[in-house]
Design goal:
The structure holds 2 protein chains of 2 kinds.
Chain A (H helix, E strand, L loop, with lengths): L10 H10 L5 H18 L2 H13 L15 H19 L1 H29 L11 E10 L2 E5 L5 H9 L4 E17 L2 E10 L3 H4 L4 E4 L8 E5 H8 L8 E4 L5 E7 L13 E4 H7 L2 H4 L10 E6 L5 H8 L17 E6 H4 L5 E2 L2 E2 L4 H28 L1 H14 L3 H38 L10 H27 L3 H5 L11 H32 L10 E5 L4 H4 L1 H10 L3 E7 L8 E3 L2 E3 L10 E6 L3 H5 L3 E4 L12 E5 H7 L8 E4 L2 E9 L14 E5 L6 E6 L5 H15 L7 E3 H7 L2 H35 L1 H9 L4 H36 L9 H28 L2 H5 L3
Parallel strand pairs in A: 4-9, 6-8, 18-23, 20-22
Antiparallel strand pairs in A: 1-2, 1-10, 1-11, 3-4, 3-7, 3-10, 5-8, 6-9, 7-8, 12-13, 14-24, 14-25, 15-24, 16-18, 17-21, 19-22, 20-23, 21-22
Helix pairs in contact in A: 1-3, 2-3, 4-15, 5-13, 5-15, 5-25, 13-16, 13-18, 13-25, 15-16, 18-25, 18-27, 18-28, 25-28, 27-28
Chain B lengths: L7 H13 L5 H12 L5 H13 L3 E8 L7 E7 L1 H20 L8 H4 L2
Antiparallel strand pairs in B: 1-2
Helix pairs in contact in B: 1-2, 1-3, 2-3
The chains are: A alpha+beta, B alpha+beta.
Chain lengths: 870, 115
């Protein structure tokens, strides 16, 4: 039994109260609170009583009851004095304050923006509640003599895992056809992103149902996201209404779920339809002679309790291999699970092993942020130690009156907190102004976290750390002056006193030169890939997406009409766009093929005029032609395919494709279909008479693009009014391939420029001090007949020397780093020494110009005015 | 000069001190306040108000007896001063005069005003 005496009020709350409340109030207040506590205990639980006690204690945080902190403490007076002197110093030396605060503000802005970006990247996909248990089943397969990692799997695998491997999984959900679909309600159409899923999707994504249910008992159900439901049904309740996806039979809305959280892979999922519905309505499911052969579904799994990704991966490794034909098992497919937490940052695989991905950029920009911040701190350190003379007397006097070193250190640290806080608030302003541009550049939707308390807490910690980093050394340095020496104006030091400063300047130059080299190389690499021959003509080439077969039935009529209108010169139908491979095949074999090697060729089927429309380059043989009826069993291969197959005289040779024999009639030059940085995939092209997914149009140069597009739309609408007219320019899509690298290029340019500005600010400040200090020397030299040029040389040569050392350090650093970056691309430039010289030269020029401002001023000064005093 | 007007909360607290008499200390006043108004209030808020009323000269206080449920600690007992009583009365009269000027409602209060 618990005795009453055991139930004392919370001890810590009591202590807290005693700590902050006025001494004369302690007795009565503690008494009152005890009474209250005991009264509460009688009617409520102990926890409620304790909570209430806390509540009462916190409610005593009122001005009348709280001890006066500043009452008679000498310490606070000194702190006030430190702030006052700090402010006065900032005001007195406006120029240096500006350089100090400005430089720091630049640095902090960069660090701030990058930190927000990093936070966004690192929290990607973590907004789905079970993210640490979810994974995607993917496979390593051997093809063309290398290990490829495929993220798609055959559809029967889902059932197979559920039947024979269910111990490992809580939930198994297959998804297919995740892309934009056309949703039709009555006569309105909407383009929305969605996919066909198996039942478990509601649990997998922890969908919050707003109305209706999330189960898929009826295969004709569809779930809509809240925003989609509102867009389509306005204020009406969508549940139990029907709509149409693409050209499928109607489906019934059975539930509406809350929009998925931002910043995840699933964010844009507007609707969820049923896999069973797709399977029973798509005729091609019945056509599979081996359902284990095609890989086209994404298989999501949620791990069971007490299972790890490793153990689950190990147990399902051969699940596919056991089911496939002997021929296909040459590919030796090994299944494994890619955890959701790694999808975004670790998405690249090479030879079956994860080699990172975006995480490289996270590291890269993290490093840049630290370096830029460091540059700004170095400025602070340099300027403050260089200005020692102006503060030396103050230190001497303070020491003579009785300040000890500890107090002086505190004083200088307080000043640096002051400066850093200023800089921080300026950089908050900068960052919020720059945010829209930064978002555009980084392709993000970041906002300043003004209301996040953890942001402000971190900000405070950050200010203190930077203040310590930047102000620590100057505080120790300045506080160690000996009062007698400084008051007698004996300048200490000699040659070595400026050594630490020089080391720091060299650090700054090293970072700047490395950044310049990096930026130029990134641009050269992008340009190099852009200059790579495409193998076809992108000019005026337009993709129009075909969602139903209506256009196909009238294809020739549409083509003729458009040609007569002089809008297009050529037009073809194709299974996929020019800029990516949508289908591959492993069923190709030829004379001399090693039977144990599995292959994987990209394939594109098209109508007759495909080659003419994209203007591919035939190297050998001929294009498809209507004059040869046998072309229906003809293939055109690209050079990579021929090289891989090792055929001497390819044209006319027979190739077996699954059970049929095809004849090679032509060889085309490699086209850049996927990455412009990689080697091109072996490709086969063949004729197809069925409806295509894409119509390719070559615009006629006679008419302007906008009028052509309007006329094309009109003609397409004439034959198929229902289908939304959707098109892309091949040139745009092609340029998308460079977007990531171009973004890196732009960002690194901006960071280099900022780094250089920060360096210049620092050098400018240092140079002006140096010029001031050597004013007398310059005056005497001038009187003795030194030429202006010689004097200028005298004042600038130190800095030139420092740039030289920095170059020597940065060259090997930049070389190693860039070589590694470039080696990540198959098609890349080699690092050029010219870039290194250019970067060093640029830095030198900038430095000399910056220093010369001060040097020339010093040299031009009348010696009389500098020498008059003393 | 110190503020001498009464706020609504202060007026209630002052009245409660009068009602409680010898038992008028912060905890009891807070409890009585909650009892009478059905509004919850923290002891700190009441204490702060009592303190302010003392500064204005409406209340005086002295340390009183202790009791076991207070852990043997003494309590501060508040008493209304003459100034406090006068201010309370003035506040009441002012209200009543306002009520009487309120057409339609003034007559209902006729009996009350003659007290």
């Amino acid at each position: 039994m618990v005795s009453k005496t055991n139930i004392a009020p919370p001890k810590f709350a009591e202590l807290l109260l005693e700590w902050f409340i006025k001494d004369e109030l302690v007795e009565e207040v503690l008494g009152d609170l005890d009474e209250k506590y005991n009264a509460t205990l009688k009617t409520k639980t102990r926890i409620a009583a304790k909570l209430n006690y806390w509540y009462q204690v916190l409610n005593y945080l009122r001005p009348f009851a709280v001890k006066r902190l500043t009452s008679d403490s000498n310490n606070t007076d000194m702190l006030k004095n430190y702030f006052k002197i700090g402010f006065r110093n900032l005001r007195k030396n406006k120029g240096y304050s500006f350089i100090n605060i400005g430089g720091l503000a630049f640095g902090i802005t960069v660090a701030l923006l990058i930190s927000l970006w990093l936070h966004d990247e690192l929290t990607y996909n973590t907004h789905i509640p079970n993210h640490d248990k979810i994974g995607l089943v993917i496979q390593n397969v051997n093809n063309n003599g290398e290990t490829q990692t495929w993220t798609s799997t055959p559809f029967p695998l889902s059932e197979e895992l559920r039947t024979n491997y269910s111990d490992n999984f809580e939930n198994i959900v297959m998804a297919v056809s995740w892309t934009e679909h056309v949703l039709t309600l009555d006569d309105q159409t909407f383009n929305r992103e969605g996919a066909y899923f198996e039942k478990g999707i509601t649990d997998l994504l922890s969908l919050q149902m707003i109305s209706g249910t999330g189960d898929f008992e009826d295969p004709t159900s569809v779930l809509l996201s809240e925003s989609t439901a509102r867009a389509i049904f306005k204020d009406k309740d969508p549940v139990n209404n029907t709509l149409v996806i693409g050209n499928m039979p109607p489906v019934k809305v059975t539930g509406v779920y809350q929009d998925l959280p931002k910043n995840t892979q699933f964010t844009g999922l507007d609707f969820i339809a049923s896999w069973d519905f797709l399977k029973s309505n798509e005729p091609w499911f019945a056509d599979f002679n081996d359902p284990w052969r095609p890989n086209f579904v994404s298989l999501y799994v949620e791990l069971a309790e007490n299972t790890s990704f490793e153990s689950a991966s190990a147990s399902i490794e051969d699940a596919k291999k056991k089911k496939i034909t002997e021929y296909l098992s040459q590919q030796n497919p090994k299944l494994f699970i890619h955890p959701m937490d790694n999808w975004h940052l670790y998405s690249k695989f090479k030879n079956g092993i994860n080699i990172g991905g975006r995480i490289e950029y996270v590291h890269l920009f993290g490093t840049v942020a630290v370096f830029v911040l460091l540059l700004a701190c170095i400025n602070f350190i340099n300027l403050n130690t260089a200005r020692n003379e102006s503060r030396a007397k103050e230190v001497g006097i303070r020491k003579a009156i009785g300040s000890v070193k500890k107090q002086l250190i505190l004083q200088f640290l307080v000043e640096s907190v002051l400066v850093v806080s200023f800089a921080y608030f300026i950089s908050l302003l900068f960052a919020s102004l720059l945010m829209p541009y930064f978002n555009e550049l980084a392709n993000k939707e970041l906002t300043m976290p003004w209301v996040s308390s953890s942001f402000w807490a971190l900000s405070t910690v950050f200010i203190l750390i930077v203040a310590l980093l930047a102000g620590g050394y100057p505080a120790f340095y300045l506080s160690s002056f000996k009062p007698v020496e400084v008051l007698k104006s004996i300048t200490s030091g000699g040659g070595y006193s400026s050594l630490p400063r020089k080391v720091l300047v060299v650090c700054q130059f090293t970072v700047s030169i490395s950044l310049i080299i990096g930026t130029i190389t990134v641009y050269q690499q992008i340009q190099h890939a852009k200059d790579r021959p495409t193998g076809y003509s992108r000019e005026g080439l337009v993709n129009v997406f075909l969602q139903n077969p209506t256009i196909h039935q009238h294809f020739d009529a549409i083509a003729n009409e458009l040609k007569q209108l002089d809008v297009v010169t050529s037009m073809a139908e194709s299974q996929s766009v020019v800029t990516s491979v949508w289908a591959t095949t492993s069923g190709l074999s030829w004379q001399g093929k090693d039977p144990d090697i599995s292959t994987d060729f990209g394939m594109i089927s098209s109508s007759y005029d495909y080659g003419k429309t994209i203007e591919w380059e035939i190297m050998e043989g001929r294009d498809f032609s209507r004059d040869f009826p046998s072309d229906s069993i003809a293939l055109i291969l690209n050079q990579s395919a021929i090289n891989y197959m090792g055929l001497e005289n390819p044209v006319g040779q027979q190739v077996t494709w699954w059970d049929n024999t095809f004849t090679i009639i032509g060889v085309v030059k490699d086209m850049i279909i996927e990455s412009p940085y990689a080697n091109q995939k072996p490709m086969i092209y063949f004729l197809s008479t069925g409806p295509g997914n894409v119509a390719l149009l070559k615009l006629s140069p006679e008419k302007s693009v906008s009028t052509s597009i309007t006329e094309i739309e009109a003609v397409f609408k004439k034959y198929d009014a229902e289908q939304p007219f959707e098109f892309t320019f091949v040139d745009d899509t092609y340029n998308q391939k460079f977007i990531d690298e171009a973004r890196i290029g732009k960002l690194s340019t901006i960071f280099s420029i900022l780094a250089i500005i920060i360096c210049c600010l620092g050098i400018f400040g240092l140079a002006s001090f140096m010029a001031e200090r050597r004013a007398k020397e310059v005056g005497i030299r001038k009187i003795l007949g030194a030429s202006m040029l010689k004097l200028w040389q005298l004042l600038t040569q130190d800095f030139v020397f420092l740039v030289g050392i920095a170059s020597a350090i940065s060259f090997p650093l930049a070389y190693c780093f860039l070589k590694e970056w470039l080696d990540g691309f198959t098609y890349h430039i080699s690092v050029s020494w010219k870039v290194f010289l250019l970067a060093a030269f640029l830095t030198l020029i900038i430095t000399v110009i910056t220093v010369s401002f001060q040097a020339i001023k010093a040299v031009m000064a009348n010696p009389v005015s500098t020498l008059r005093s003393e | 000069m110190k503020e001498t007007r009464l706020g609504e909360f202060e007026e209630v607290v002052l009245l409660l001190v009068g009602i409680l008499g010898e038992q008028a200390y912060a905890f009891k006043v807070a409890e009585e306040f909650e009892e009478q108004t059905k509004r919850s209030v923290s002891i700190g808020a009441v204490h702060s108000s009592l303190n302010r009323l003392s500064e204005k000269g409406f209340l005086t206080s002295e340390m009183g007896a202790s009791s076991p449920e207070r852990g043997g600690r003494r309590k501060r007992i508040y008493k209304i001063t003459a100034l406090g009583q006068r201010t309370l009365r003035e506040a009441r009269d002012f209200r009543v005069s306002l009520w009487q000027q309120f057409p339609g409602l003034g007559s209902e209060l006729a009996g009350f005003s003659s007290i």
